[in-house]
Structures are given as structure tokens and as C-alpha cells.
Amino acid sequence: MPSAAGRRAGAACRGRSDHLASLLVRGLPDWLMPLPDAETMRGIDRWAIEQRGIEGLDLMERAGAGVARAVERVAPDGPVAVVCGKGNNGGDGLVVARLLRDAGRRVSVLCVAPPRELAGDARTNLQRLPGQPPVRLDGSPWSGGERAGADPLGAGAVIVDALLGTGFRGEPRGTVAEAIDAINAAAAAGAAVVSVDVPSGVDASTGVVSGRAVGAAVTVTFHAAKPGLWIRPGKACAGAMEAIDIGIPRGAPADASIGLIEDSIAAALPRREPSGTKFTSGHVLVAGGSRGLTGAPAMAARASMRAGAGYVTACVPASLQAIMAGGGTPELMTIGLAENDGALTLEAVERVLDAGGRGGALALGPGLGRSEGAGAFARRLAQRADMAMVLDADGLNAHAGRLGELTGRSAPTVLTPHAGELARLLELDSAEIERNRLQHVRAAAEQAAAVVVLKGDDTLIAQPGGTVAVSPGGSPALATAGTGDVLTGVIAALLARGLDAFTAAAAGVWLHAQAGRLAARRVGSTEGVVASDVIAALPGARSPAPRGEGGEDG
Predict the structure, then answer these.
(1) Could you list the residue range(s) of the whole structural domain that residue 429 is in?
(2) Residue 144: per-residue pLDDT
(3) Based on C-alpha coordinates, what's the Rg of the chain?
(4) What does the pLDDT average to over 86-106?
(5) Interatomic CA distance for residues 500 and 539, integer angstroms
(6) Given pLDDT bands bounded at 50, 70 and 90, which one contains residue 15?
(7) What is the chain's mean pLDDT, rounded?
(8) CA 117/CA 532 separation, integer angstroms
(9) 50: exposed, middle or buried (C-beta count within 10 Å: 0-12, 13-18, 19+)?
(10) Strand ranges in 67-211 using DSSP code E only, listed in sequence order
(11) Same domain, yes or no: 189 and 323
(12) What is the pLDDT of residues 518-544, one digit of tens each?
């Protein structure tokens, strides 16, 4: 876990900085902080150097100075080991080493390749390095000079990871892989690791980790955070994040397709007008429920109410209607539907369609169960319902391997799977979903022609065409049963008020996470929160509040 100093260092990454706000970003709403991928960042660097006349050496100097400051914050004294690759990331590390040596710190510099292989700005900074030249990972000299010691990494209070930069993709191999393992072993023994721009082994554009990656306490990234620092599994490697200005001028062009949800999205949440009615406040139908699973539709319905819907109807098996009606929510309307032994059947579709005649939004799937009849009901209703829809839980399972059936819908559609449900939809293994969350959420959005919300601490909201919103997470209270049903109800309420599917999904994810944090403060413990606490916190969660650490589930 990052140290307190590391967490403070990451605070700068939480808001939109002045230089980042100046990016000429196209295609993202203003409530998303752009997360430029590796290709975009290469274009930004090239623009700064070739069109604005900024020296590459100056950019490298500022980058190294920012990392050196982070090292001083993490550990104001003690030895430092800087582990360098042979690219520009290694050049940044050499700047760090020079500045810390100039400040009187004892610094070992370790290179995974012969220093003679360094080129360009990295070679220039090698020539500027005072004191002992770089040595091998085991401390032996590359050519001449003194041995750094039997275990130079083990002696480091701080290790600077300057092995691989944002351009890296694939699996680390050879000496680089050995260096990553050595860094992680030293971290396990108590050393603090500061990564330069991105933890080595993490794909900066996607968060994919193939084989191994450095687990950092702090990552100092340059100009703007990259997607892989906010998307798991890369996010789990990054520790606290600090995005620093390295002198790229204002107005840098960027075509970012991924952005981090900011608190400014709260302005998109609908407010009730004095002249409004229960219908203008939004009508939500919740269709689901089965014997033993009445809690799920009940929570989705109550969440819709607390998220602002003015009129909510629970459509459940007829034998469960009395349970729903007597569940302590007198404001909730109920409709009993055709069933077979407590599970909805195909014959129930028409009744739900009739109830949706006033428009609004449909939340389909909570507590539905996996009977053959319930699956047929979900598929037929999803195809025929001419209203905005959130598809969740067993409504998703009914579409396993059938995502293409949703493309014919005439109204907006939002899917809210966790990794296991998305794996079933795409007919993949859940481990493969978790390995490359970004790729698979985008694929599902394309196949379904729908907005797809892949839940997690790094909840990803993808729309067809590739635009993705990323939740900052930090709401561990949501890792409890039923919170997924709450999210379904929240998004349905926002759809019922007329928000477009992408905005409704992103705003719903943001409000849901806010409510999780507020609920934890109210009950006094993250571990004590249940889904009903999150529902109760929804009205008060519309104002931004501090984030904690941890994950989301449900």
C-alpha cells in the first residue's frame, strides 16, 4: 500500500490541471479529464518539439526534476537506487540520479543494457551524470569503476523504476524482466518504489500487464495521466499518482478517446422543477424477481426513487406481488405478471409493454433467475420495449452469446455487467476479461450497439465508436451484495429523465460511488455498509465529497 507521503503525492492527479485543461481535445464531454494514450502522447511531444521549438532535453530535465521531488517526499533521506532502461525513460532516470547526487544523496545507478547503447537525450544525460557510472543489476561494473555492492537494490530506501516508458507493449523479457522481479522483491522487503511515467511492464494505453510489472508506491506521470494508470490491472501497479507539468505549451492537440470522470458531472444530474409532476420526474419500470430473489428488484426500485425518479413500478411474478407491495416502500407501485413456479414467462411481456406506455425507462433483469422461461421473457422484452433500458444481472445472462440481438432496439440501451457476466456475454473466460478490460468492454459496446458499463474499482463506460469514461473508483463500501442492483436503478432513473445513455451511465456510476463513500461515513465503517445504506445516501451524494481508497463491486 502506498505510504502517506505517496498518497499526498497522488493528490495532484485528482483534478484537471491548467496545462491539461488547455489540450485541444475533440470528442470528449467536458466532464471527462482526457487520458491520452501512448500514441497521443508521442504526438504531443512531437508537436512541442517540432512546432513549438521546445528542446527534448528540457522536457527530460523537467520530468526528471519532478521525479526527484517525489523521491524526496517519499523518503527525505537514505540511499536511492535508480534502475534505467536504454530509452528515454532511462534518460529521465539519469536526470533523477544526477539531481539527487547533486543534493547530497547516495545514489546507485543500475542499467539493464550497456550504457554505450544509450542514444540521443538519454546519452547526453549519461554524460552529465557525476560520480560513479552505471553498473549492472548485480552491482558489477559495465566497464571499470567500483562495484556498487553485493545487493544495490536491497540497500535502497527508494528505488526509481526508469526501465520502460509509455511506448512499451507486450511482455518484459530478459534482463528487463529480471530487473522488474528484483525491484518487486526489494519492495516486498520494505523499499519504496517510484515509477517514472508508468510502472514498467504496464501498457500505458490499456492497463494490460503481460507477465510481470513493477508494483509502485508512487507513479510520477508526465503532462497527463495515461489510461493504463487508471484501468486495472495497471491501476493496481501504479500506487499513488502525480501528473506533473513538464513544460509542454498550452494548446497541444489531442484526440483522446478515454477520459476520467470528474466531479463536474454532477451538473448533468437532473433537478426537479417547481412545475414538475411525478411523470416529468421520470417513470421507471423494474422487471424481474423470482422466488427467493425479491430483494434485487426491490433495491433497484428504491434506488430509482432515491436517484430522483418520480414514479416507479415493480413488475414481478404474481405470486411475489404481495411481498413487494408489503416490503416497506408504500410509494412503490407493483404489477403481478404471468409466471411458472415463481419465475416469469414469455406471456408476461405484453403486460410490461402496456405498463410502459407512458415512456420512461426499463430496468430489466434484477432477481430474474435463470429459468428457460425467464430467459425467453428477458430476450423478448428487450427486443420489443420501445423505451430506454438498463439490462443487468440475469437479463444479461439471458443474452449470453446473443449480444447481436440487441442491435435492433430502437431506444437507448445500457448494459451493466461485472467481469463474469461480460465473459458470458462474449463467450470468453472471466480471467481474459480482467486481463484486458478496455478491449473487451469496447468490443461488447460494438457488438450490442449499446453503452456497456464494466463494473469494478475502475468501472469502464464504453459507447460504440470507442469513447470510454473511467471511474476514479475509491469506494470500497460498494463491495457488498446488492449494490449492482442499486446502480441499475440509479441509471434507469437518469435515463427516465431523458439523459443520453452515455451520460446517464457515467453520471450514475459517479453518483453510486459518491453514495458508497457517504454511506461509509454515516455508518462509521466501510465494512459495515449494506446496499440499503447506499440507497439511503443517494440524495445527499449529489455534492462532491472526498474519496477514499479501495474497490467497487456489485
Answers:
(1) 279-542
(2) 63
(3) 26
(4) 97
(5) 21
(6) very low
(7) 92
(8) 60
(9) exposed
(10) 80-84, 107-111, 158-162, 192-196
(11) no
(12) 999 999 999 999 999 999 999 999 987
Is the pLDDT confidence value at 363 over 50?
Answer: yes
pTM: 0.92
Cis amide prior to 233 (ω within 30 degrees): yes
pLDDT in tens, 225-264: 999 999 999 999 999 999 999 999 988 887 899 999 999 9
| Element housing 32 (H / E) | strand 32-34
Q: Which ranges of 103-241 does DSSP label H, i.e. alpha helix? A: 120-128, 174-188, 234-238
Split into its structural domains, the chain has a count of: 2
CA 445 to CA 309: how far, in whole Å? Answer: 26
Q: DSSP characters for 427-479? A: T--HHHHHHTHHHHHHHHHHHHTSEEEE-STT-EEE-TTS-EEE-----GGG-
Query: What is the DSSP code string of 11-28?
Result: GGGSS--HHHHTSEE-SS
Same domain? 216 vs 299 = no
Q: Can you tell me the mean pLDDT for 495-516?
A: 98
pLDDT at position 4 is 36
Cα–Cα distance, 91 to 85 (Å, whole number): 8
Task: Identify the three-state secondary structure at position 194.
Answer: strand
Lowest mean pLDDT among 146-160, 222-236, 260-274, 436-450: 146-160
Distance CA(132)–CA(94), nearest Å, equals 12
pLDDT at 182 over 50: yes
The residues pairing with 193 across neighbouring beta strands, listed in sequence order, are 159
Domain presence at residue 549: no
Residue linked to cell 505549451: 249
Sign of the CA dihedral 534, 540, 544, 545?
Answer: negative
Plot region of 78 (φ>0 → left; ψ -120 to 50 → alpha; else → beta): left
Closest by Cα among 109, 12, 67, 79 to 199:
67
Shared domain for 475 and 537, answered yes or no, is yes
pLDDT in tens, 262-271: 999 999 999 9
Residue-level pLDDT at 148: 55
Tell me: do 303 and 240 sit in the same domain: no
- Label residue 306 left, alpha or beta by phi (over 0 means left) and psi (-120 to 50 means alpha): alpha
| Inside any domain, residue 266 | no
Predicted pLDDT of residue 139:
86
Q: Is 466 left (phi over 0), alpha (psi -120 to 50) or beta?
A: left
CATH number, residue 359? 3.40.1190.20
Which residue stretches of 166-294 are H helix?
Answer: 174-188, 234-238
List beta partners, residue 388: 361
Amino acid sitting at position 143: S
Contact predicate 314/301, CB 8 Å: yes
Q: Taking Cα atoms as reference points, which of 258, 336, 316, 324 lies closest to residue 506?
A: 258
Q: Torsions phi, psi of 286, nearest 5?
A: -110, 115
In a shared domain, residues 74 and 116: yes
Q: Are residues 327 and 471 in the same domain?
A: yes
- In whole angstroms, what is the distance from residue 114 CA to residue 428 CA? 43
pLDDT band at 276 (very low <50, low <70, confident <90, very high): confident
